[in-house]
Amino acid sequence: MGHLEVVQEAMRNDGIDALLLGGEAAGFFVAGHTRIGVHPGGSVLPLTIVPSSGLPHVITGDPDGATHLPDDHVHATRWSPMTLARDLPQWLGGASGLRIGVDMLSPTAHSIIRGALTDCRLVDATGLLATVMLPKSPEEIDQMAVLCRFVTAAAEEGLRHGRPALIEALGGAFPITFPQVSSSAVSVAIRRDGLVAEARLGPGPPSLGERALDALVPGATVDDVAEELPAGVEVVGLGWGFESPVLRHGMGSPSGLRLRAGSVLAVRWAACGVTIALGESGIRFLSLEPDEVAR
User: Fold this and answer.
1) pLDDT at position 25
2) Domain match, 98 and 125 both
């Protein structure tokens, strides 16, 4: 099944009639559309509207961002909240009493949804999204490995020859964070073909990263892993964006989420970082290993 079908099956299993999403990674994963402009704290409006069956509606400023969807399912970003409130019930089939899952929407978005769908119930869908987005297919992991090698090679150029060399090495790849370049460290993240990869090279003890890797095993909950992480280490989901889970010593989110084989995770400490895929038989490094990223 494709991503949309996997999410819709999970929605039906959880009794969720629709998803209203503001998160960039979740929106891309479910609907496959690109956006111009990112709102890390949650979008003012939901930008991906997913029924439990049928095609999603997306709001995007990229005119070529969703050519796989019918024109009447793709909407420009210059919409007002009043327009959204008017059209949202129609997009959801005019049904009443819906159970609607939401992710990182702003308080304004919550208010708009409640005003437009007065008899619907809003529920937190971050756990559902994390569960379905966490495991990547073998093909996706192979793509991530290629992208990690590419961005790491660019970071190496930046470390040797400075920012101009890094930008030149990235070529047409789209940096999604402002590259940090100094004489001793480089940090850069890029998106290509919908996937996100990063490279972090610089000072930091390899042993810190290695201790964190020992805690990352399929079947463990993020809560248990967080208790084992050394202080100063961060672990985040990576793939279709910067995703769940987010783990630091003593803090794992979303609570109760279990790591699974196929999970792609970025492990960061000091100025260093590695990207791994969890497997039933061990860890696959998609990037360099800890003693190679520590400079």
Assistant:
1) 87
2) yes
